[in-house]
Design a protein that fits this description.
Radius of gyration: 18 Å
Distance between the termini: 55 Å
Number of strands: 7
CATH architecture: 3-Layer(aba) Sandwich
Oligomer: single chain
Shape: globular
Order of helices and strands: EHEHEHEHEHEHHHEH
Helix content: 40-55%
Strand order of the largest sheet: 3-2-1-4-5-6-7
Length: 258
C-alpha cells in the first residue's frame, strides 16, 4: 500500500482551510493543521484523525519549528495549502490603520512566504510536492482594500516566482482565486445587514456564491495528479465575477435586463 500523502493546511480551523482539510483527509491524506485558534483547530483535527499545531504564520521561527515537528510526527509534507489570512472591511488609504495594515501583510503575505519556505525545503529534499496558495480574484482589479487587495496581487506574483524556482525540483505551485465565499462569517454579516447580498450577487455571472467546499475541490484538483502539468496559475473560483464585473457595469448598457 502506498504511503499516505502528508497535507499541511495553514488556517485550517475554519472556513476554506477547514473545508480543504476535510477534503484532503477524505482523499486519504494525513492532515496537519496550523492555526492560532487552538480550540477550533484541535476540534477539526480530531474529527479527521489529524494533527493540530498552534502556530502564528507571521512568525517565521514558529513556522520552521512546526514544520520540523510535523516532519517528525507524520513525515515530510507532500501538499501545502496556505489558507491562513485576515480579511478586512473596506477603508480609504488616507484613513487606514497602519498597524492593522502591517499585520495583514505579516499574516497574509509574509505568512505565505514563511510556510512555502519551511515546507518547500522538505519537498525539495524529496523532489516532489504541490503547493496551493490562497489568492483572490480581486487581485485582478482594484478594490478599496488597501492592504488586502495589493497583498493578494503580491501572492499571485509570488506563486509564479515559486513555480519557476521549484519546478526543477518536481514541485508545482498554483493559487486559487475565490470571489466572496459563503462562509459562516459572511452569512452572519449578510444577516446582520453589514453586507448587501443583492449587490454581491449583482456582479457575478452565476446566481450562487461558492461555498468553502467549492474552493476545497479546486485545491484538491490542483494538488492531484490530474493537474500534473499545471503550475504557476491562479485558478478563479469566482462564480463568473471576473467576467461579469465589467460586463454588467458597461456604460452603454447591457443587452438584457432581469
Amino acid at each position: 500500500m502506498a504511503a499516505r500523502r502528508v497535507a499541511v493546511i495553514t488556517g485550517g480551523s475554519s472556513g476554506i482551510g477547514e473545508a480543504t482539510a476535510r477534503r484532503l483527509a477524505a482523499d486519504g491524506c494525513a492532515v496537519a493543521i496550523l492555526d492560532v485558534n487552538r480550540a477550533g483547530g484541535e476540534a477539526v483535527a480530531k474529527s479527521l484523525s489529524g494533527r493540530f499545531y498552534k502556530c502564528d504564520v507571521a512568525d517565521a521561527k514558529a513556522v520552521d519549528a512546526a514544520a520540523g515537528q510535523i516532519e517528525t510526527d507524520l513525515g515530510s509534507a507532500d501538499i501545502l495549502v496556505t489558507s491562513a489570512g485576515l480579511i478586512p472591511n473596506s477603508e480609504a488609504i488616507m484613513d487606514m490603520d497602519m498597524a492593522a495594515h502591517d499585520r495583514m501583510w505579516q499574516v497574509n503575505y509574509n505568512g505565505t512566504i514563511h510556510a512555502c519556505r519551511a515546507f518547500g525545503r522538505q519537498m525539495i529534499a524529496r523532489k516532489r510536492g504541490a503547493i496551493v496558495t490562497l489568492g483572490s480574484i480581486n487581485s485582478r482589479l482594484p478594490l478599496p482594500l488597501p492592504a488586502y487587495n495589493p497583498g493578494k496581487a503580491a501572492i499571485e506574483r509570488l506563486t509564479q516566482l515559486l513555480a519557476v524556482e521549484l519546478g526543477r525540483h518536481g514541485i508545482r505551485v498554483n493559487s486559487v482565486g475565490p470571489t466572496y465565499v459563503m462562509t459562516p462569517p459572511l452569512r452572519a454579516k449578510v444577516e446582520s445587514g453589514q453586507r448587501d447580498l443583492g449587490k454581491i450577487m449583482g456582479v457575478h455571472a452565476l446566481n450562487r456564491l461558492p461555498e468553502p467546499a467549492d474552493i476545497a475541490d479546486a485545491i484538491a484538483y490542483l494538488c492531484s495528479d490530474q493537474a500534473k502539468a499545471i503550475t504557476g496559475v491562479l485558478l478563479p473560483v469566482d462564480a463568473g465575477w471576473l467576467a461579469a464585473v465589467s460586463y454588467r457595469t458597461y456604460a452603454g448598457g447591457v443587452p438584457w435586463t432581469e
